[in-house]
């Protein structure tokens, strides 16, 4: 994820190099992604691996590591737990090891890189496109832009269910508003945005 500060720096640096006030020095910049992405949540000393993993057959699970990107087995991919002993129509997921320090001792945790995912955080689904979602946009929203990210995951309004809604949680970061204002002021009326 590229921060808004980095985008601003790149834009100003290119404007300085090209000696023009135009955004990104008047160059065409192609970006892929979402300008309103959320900062990663930090923590979990064991590499994100759970100390215990309790799932059963047909439990909805989410990968917490990239396993095989060409097969779509990436961090955040969801599916159903089928079996720990035999796989017929699925792709086997093997346990991984993560080494970390705890109270001065080196610990190795071996665990399947999965977690139950009957519900997901906005952080985990920000790269997905969903047909259906039930959203809690109430007191659980703690970051500017988080409501936008949650709503923008849906392909259509037909799949949207809002469980709780706090209109005061719809906030945009000041830096994003300033950058949009700067871009609007810099572009002439004849430029296409």
What does this structure look like?
The chain has 193 residues and is α+β, with helices and mostly antiparallel strands. The chain has a domain of 77 residues. The strands form three sheets. The protein has a three-stranded antiparallel beta sheet, with no helix packed on it. Strands 3-4 form a two-stranded antiparallel ribbon. A two-stranded parallel sheet has the order 6-7. A hairpin with a 2-residue loop joins strand 3 and strand 4. The two termini are 23 Å apart.
Give short descriptive properties of this protein.
single chain, 193 residues, alpha+beta, 3-stranded antiparallel β-sheet, two-stranded antiparallel sheet
List the helices and strands and how they pair.
Elements: H1 4-18, E1 60-63, E2 78-80, E3 96-102, E4 105-111, E5 114-116, H2 122-125, E6 133-137, H3 146-151, E7 160-165, H4 174-186
Parallel strand pairs: 6-7
Antiparallel strand pairs: 1-2, 1-5, 3-4
